[in-house]
Amino acid sequence: CKQLAKSGISTAVIVREDGACTCAPTSGRFTTPYVHPLSVRRNNCGVMATSLRRQRILLLSAIALVAFNLRTALTSVPTVVIDIQRATGMNDIAVGALTTLPVIAMGVFALAVPAIARQLGRSQTVWLAMAILVIAMGTRLAGEVPGVLPASALLAGIGIALAAGLVPGIIREE
């Protein structure tokens, strides 16, 4: 295992769920060392995974919160369509556009997700998506102002497209 610290690629440390670890030589086909996202610490028997369960719980919690925010942005408008029409005076076509705009924005901006993720990084892009969703949901509070609801629907679609395009890959990696 001491070769791992020197070269980073000649030895692989395999950590089992019970915390036991073994060292095994790699095939040499890797050109850069791969650092697993587990936190590791040194102890008497080598390398042992620490707080694996806590990391999994945090990851699952973050995924659930992201999914909840994505869902809320889409499902909140149809439930209050009649209230929106009363408060704003919008006709049926305009209210129908409020539920269609996020879907169109999701389709259009899904094409830009890889380029944005390359520029910002995947986790930063998900943070950007969550910030856009917070702005979109927050602007709905001023829904009686003309143009605010369509703008918030468009922003919600953009935020959903950014997050929905990246979260499955992040889950697969972790």
Your description of this structure?
With 174 residues, this protein is mainly alpha-helical. It has seven helices and four strands. The strands form two sheets. A two-stranded antiparallel sheet has the order 1-2. Strands 3-4 form a two-stranded antiparallel sheet. A hairpin with a 2-residue loop joins strand 3 and strand 4 (46-50). Helix 5 (113-120) packs across helix 7. The longest helix has 26 residues, at 148-173. The model is unreliable at 1-11 and 29-50 (pLDDT under 50).
Short description:
With 174 residues, the protein is mostly helical. It has helices spanning 2-7, 52-75, 81-88, 92-109, 113-120, 122-139, 148-173, and strands at residues 11-15, 21-25, 39-43, 46-50.
Would you identify the regions where 5 or more consecutive residues have pLDDT less than 50?
Answer: 1-11, 29-50
Q: Beta fraction of the residues?
A: 5-15%
Please give the radius of gyration in angstroms: 23 Å
Shape: elongated
How many DSSP-defined strands? Answer: 4
Give the end-to-end Cα distance, rounded to a whole number of Å: 24 Å
